[in-house]
Known about the structure:
Blueprint: E1 2-7, E2 27-28, E3 31-32, H1 33-43, E4 49-53, H2 57-64, E5 69-72, H3 81-87, E6 96-100, E7 103-105, H4 108-116, E8 120-124, E9 135-139, E10 142-147, E11 157-165, H5 167-182, H6 191-194, E12 204-207, E13 213-215, H7 219-237, H8 249-261, E14 267-268, E15 279-282, E16 288-294, E17 297-304, E18 310-329, E19 336-344, E20 347-356, E21 363-364, E22 367-392, E23 397-405
Parallel strand pairs: 1-4, 1-6, 4-5, 8-12
Antiparallel strand pairs: 2-3, 6-11, 7-13, 8-11, 9-10, 9-11, 14-22, 15-23, 16-17, 17-23, 18-22, 18-23, 19-20, 19-22, 21-22
Helix pairs in contact: 3-5
Amino acid sequence: MQVVILAAGRGARLGAKAEGLPKCLLQVGGEPLLERQLRSLADVGASPALVVVGYAADLVRETLRDRAETLLNVRYDSTNSLYSLWLARDWVKGPVLVLNSDVLFDKELLDLLVHAGPDHLAYDSDSGRAVEHMKVRLVDGIVRDLSKTLANGDSSGENVGVVYLGAETARAVFVKADELVKAGRENVFWAEALRPVLAEARIRGVDVAHVPWVEIDTPYDLDRARREVWPAIQNRTGTPTRRRNRRPWWIAAAVVASLAAGILGFRTLATPDAIHHTWEPLHGEGGRAATITVGHMPQVWSQVTGSEPVVLKILGPHSLRIDLRALVPHGTDATIPYKIGVSMDGRQKLLDSFTARPKTLIRHDESTVCDRDKILFKVPPGLHEITVRHEDGALEGLLIRFRMLEEQE
Length: 409
């Protein structure tokens, strides 16, 4: 079977949580959503795959490498999923699995759908009551309607965003999509092309209420994906969940030592990069947004010059990390000492020294981006304002970003 993944959208409702990334590259469990979808598709033998890209298309292509074909929706900012699917009309030749790229799901969902065969739609009978949900109405197991405006009394559940269409049904959907595009309705969901086909096609529902999944449209969805859905998927697949009591003893000792070293636990902490934690991005105010690419992945930072501060408001208690990357002129070989001051609620809690090491190949504008330094500390209970500023050192500028540890019990 062929696969079409709709991945052109920007995900504007995520705001700063998206860090400038398209939704398909949002990381959950340390890996982009698109990577997880491709692996699950490979596991069930679904191929070849076409990814319809738009926003940050080059970055998505770089992530895909040669694992899927791509098709560019140059009008991604003014169209919706209907237009993206319509662009794939000449590529699809038979049965096709259509996925929204912003859905995180356990692989069992695809197993159930593929095993059921063409003309099946995944839905969740335990969901489908919120206004933003794409609801489905089933009669004797057959999908009869699909709309966000269905009354709760008519809804049988929520459409997951993964549909397996037979060849004839796919052709009928593309005919309707073509009619809608020619009528100027490019900015609607592709479900609008499927709805009129339901009267004749017998598309059955596959209830996946017992399978962990979430469609990520808002910051709340992303938080739920990371804190609830991903751990649930890990538990089903036997993937070890990262727990604090499973860390090596010397990591725990280092953390304890760091907390004892300064007021309220402020202290720089260097831990080997081989120890992986999941750090959720937080966004402070101040500076200018700057994107650098590290290991083929973009990172969004706040760029400051002089003693310009970056301020973060955070509700504790939480483990917080401040990442720092100094900016120095191109061609600089020498290391440069610099100092960082951190205040909480207007009172300075830390003044620490670092060394800018221009040993990377990372460039930003006219500067070389130095190796990362970091500060790790515990934020006490309550609402606090954390201020970070460059206090001293001959730097061209400084990149600052905040990360909060995702605790998994």
